[in-house]
Design goal:
The complex is a heterodimer.
Chain A lengths: L2 H4 L4 E11 L5 E11 L3 E6 L5 H8 L7 E6 L2 E2 L5 H8 L2 E4 L11 H11 L4 H14 L15 H13 L5 E5 L7 H16 L3 E5 L3 H6 L4 E5 L2 E5 L10
Parallel strand pairs in A: 3-8, 3-9, 6-7, 7-8
Antiparallel strand pairs in A: 1-2, 1-4, 4-5, 9-10
Chain B lengths: L18 H38 L2 E6 L8 H16 L4 E6 L2 H12 L12 E7 L7 H11 L3 E5 H44 L1 H9 L4 H42 L10 H8 L1 H21 L4
Antiparallel strand pairs in B: 1-3, 1-4, 2-3
The chains are: A alpha/beta, B alpha+beta.
């Protein structure tokens, strides 16, 4: 289950001397160096305002660094065309803390968005969306407008939308924050399973319980800089 | 039993409900209305000028004034024949027609009414002289020669006021063309700024779509589809309103046109152009919306 077991050698995300500054405000992140190998699994921790969202935003290509270079799938995002960026984003799934669903659309239509933007056939979209909504136990609510769903249901729609494309990178910001324990366990199993199949996963969380339960390396943000803590080796009973 | 999916072909951007599109619907209808009126005006003036030119150029009117105490009809006929013969002998003249009493009555009717006996009035005899096509007729020389043999006759050269009328028509057409270009420019700017406003309103949705991997083209096509519908529907409303106004104006002008303006006609091609304006508005709105989105999104993310 450890990340090292799945990790390859090719980094899917590579950041060198990256700094982020909004306007004339002080830097949020300073001189960051980070390399995420293909198939790795990391937790992202840090206090509120430590820069977790900024770091994730760069990973899902919504933010370019103020200085330094960010390379995703081997492409320096500073030089990628808009269409190339769109094609790279299709390989990344994102779960936002505030869900960012299209509130006027149904659960089905929200989950279908990543497939529609790729131009997938309607019949294939229906098959895949229905299957995934059944898996997150939302099949009966698929026609409900998102604004009428509960927090937990929205969370599950957001997660279904993030994984529907079978992404190569999955980024999640507090993905289990609004769901009960059973659903949280089920969702974590989904992330682990996706990681086992080769998806690089980064989960931002405040939950020490989650971090302890799943023994993966941890990226910690503090004082504008970043530290990576390796997975703790668990001692077996025999040891 | 499987849950049936309701909305398969929804647009992610709720453009139908946003204020910018309501504004655009109203502006498009008004712009198409103004464009239709200006275009119809242009075509009407063009048609009127052609009618004037065809009807009057190559002709001149000769007036033979009655002399004081002139009662001898034989004497009058002699004087008339003298002038007719003068013109018939000119190489550039095709034909000379004497305007009858009935025709004169009709010409005078707008001023004197229908049932007035004009025989008692000292009206001049009128000759309608038609020149040969392309003939070089020297008006001044002919007027001088006519004065020598018949001082009681004078030539009314239509070309002088015809040219003035045609100059006026040309000025009106230039004005109409300027209005057409202005309406077109204002229309394009309105669409552009309405689209920019709408992009601002839906900024969060657009950001989500981008994060999901949507290309700018995907978003621009949603705006283009909406632009097409707005252009077509608002364009049809604007054109219908313009045609109603035009019909009313045309109906009113019929009374005025008798003898003054000539016929107020638009060719079948012109009608086709007017009726196709909603389609042109739809195409313009589609292209402008698409371009505006692509241009604006380049600055985002």
């Amino acid at each position: 289950m450890a990340a090292d077991r799945n990790a390859g050698t090719e980094p899917v995300v590579d950041m060198q001397n990256v700094s982020i500054r909004y306007g004339t405000d002080p830097e949020v992140l300073s001189d960051i160096r980070l390399s995420l190998e293909k198939g790795s699994f990391h937790f992202l921790t840090g206090k509120s305002g430590a820069g977790k969202t900024s770091l994730l935003s760069m990973m899902y290509l919504a933010l370019k660094p103020s200085s330094g270079t960010v390379t995703v799938f081997g492409t320096n995002i500073g030089f990628a065309s808009r269409d190339a960026m769109a094609l790279m984003r299709r390989r990344i799934g994102v779960v936002f803390q505030d869900f960012r669903l299209l509130e006027h659309l149904s659960a089905y239509d929200n989950v279908a968005v990543p497939l529609k933007v790729r131009g997938m056939k309607e019949s294939e979209i229906e098959k895949r969306v229905r299957e995934l909504l059944r898996w997150v136990e939302l099949e009966s609510s698929m026609n409900k407008i998102c604004s009428t769903l509960s927090g937990g249901e929205k969370q599950r729609v957001a997660i279904a939308r993030a994984v529907i494309n079978r992404p190569e990178i999955l980024l999640a910001d507090e993905p289990t924050g609004n769901v009960d324990d059973d659903i949280a366990q089920k969702l974590m199993k989904l992330f682990v399973e996706m990681n086992r199949l080769g998806t690089t996963v980064v989960i931002a969380t405040h939950s020490q319980e989650l971090i302890n339960q799943y023994n993966y390396p941890r990226i910690h943000l503090e004082n504008k800089s970043l530290k990576v803590f390796p997975a703790l080796r668990r001692l077996s009973n025999a040891e | 039993m499987q849950n049936k999916i309701k909305l398969n072909h929804v647009s992610e951007l709720p453009l139908k409900k946003d204020q910018a599109n309501l504004f655009l619907e109203a502006v498009t209808a008004v712009m198409v209305f103004l464009f239709s009126i200006a275009l119809a005006g242009y075509m009407l003036v063009d048609s009127m000028a052609k009618n004037w030119q065809n009807g009057i150029s190559g002709t001149l009117t000769v007036q033979i004034m009655p002399l004081p105490g002139d009662t001898d009809s034989q004497e009058k006929s002699l004087r008339l024949n003298k002038v007719i013969t003068f013109f018939e002998n000119q190489p550039a003249v095709e034909s000379v027609i004497l305007i009858s009493e009935t025709q004169k009555e009709r010409l005078m009717s707008p001023w004197l009414g229908q049932d007035v006996d004009i025989s008692a009035l000292p009206l001049p005899e009128l000759l309608d002289v038609h020149l040969k096509q392309g003939a070089d007729f020297d008006y001044e020389k002919a007027a001088q020669a006519l004065k020598e043999i018949a001082p009681f006759a004078s030539i009314d050269n239509h070309n002088v006021w015809l040219h003035r009328l045609l100059d006026l028509a040309s000025s009106i057409q230039t004005l109409a063309l300027s209005v057409l270009w202005m309406v077109l420019a204002v229309g394009v700017f309105s669409i552009f700024y309405a689209v920019c406003t709408s992009l601002g309103i839906h900024g969060q949705i657009i950001e989500i779509l981008h994060i999901m991997g949507a290309k700018d083209d995907y978003i621009a096509r949603q705006y283009a589809r909406r632009g097409f519908l707005i252009g077509l529907i608002s364009g049809a409303i604007g054109t219908a309103a313009a045609l109603s106004a035009f019909w009313w104006l045309h109906h009113s002008a019929v009374y005025l046109s008798a003898g003054l303006l000539g016929s107020l006609d638009i060719s079948s091609g012109g009608w086709l152009l007017l009726l196709s304006l909603p389609l042109w508005a739809a195409l313009l709105s589609t292209a402008t919306s698409y371009w505006a989105v692509r241009r604006t999104l380049r600055k985002i993310m």
